[in-house]
Design brief:
single chain, about 160 residues, mainly beta, 9-stranded mixed β-sheet, 1 helix, 11 strands
Length: about 160
Amino acid sequence: MHHCVLLLTTVLVVVTVSQTSAWLGPRRTLAPGEDYDYIVLQAGKRGNDDVIDTLTPKRLTRLANGTSREGRLEVWHDGEWGTVCDDDFDHVDAAVACYSLGFQYKGLAIGTKYGKGEGKIWLDEVRCVGKEPSVGDCDHNPWGVTDCGHKEDVSIQCLIGN
């Protein structure tokens, strides 16, 4: 178990997160008592994959095997990382995933470009309306209920700018 530290003006908050090793910075400066939007955690290697981990109020989301703006979408649920199936995953769903990673609601579903993940396939049949805080908050099959294999792990690209 590693710890991630968030500094809110003069108040120090420690968030305990497993499988992480460093805190890089908050999305924006927060007033005392204000909830955070996200915290970017360690960027680096996990096995053969490059990963960027992001802590959101409810979920951890990361991009694996790519860059800070694109890669295989993975979510943290029930104590472990898992992937998201590409069945019906569209640009609206990708935009929500990008928002949960700290970008604007701008993203593209880019098929399975960043390859197969490992472990659980947590989400399938994701259906976002476009303003949810993370893909886990969108409509989807029950967690872990899927007809997908890892060859269908979705990849996304987060867009920057207007």
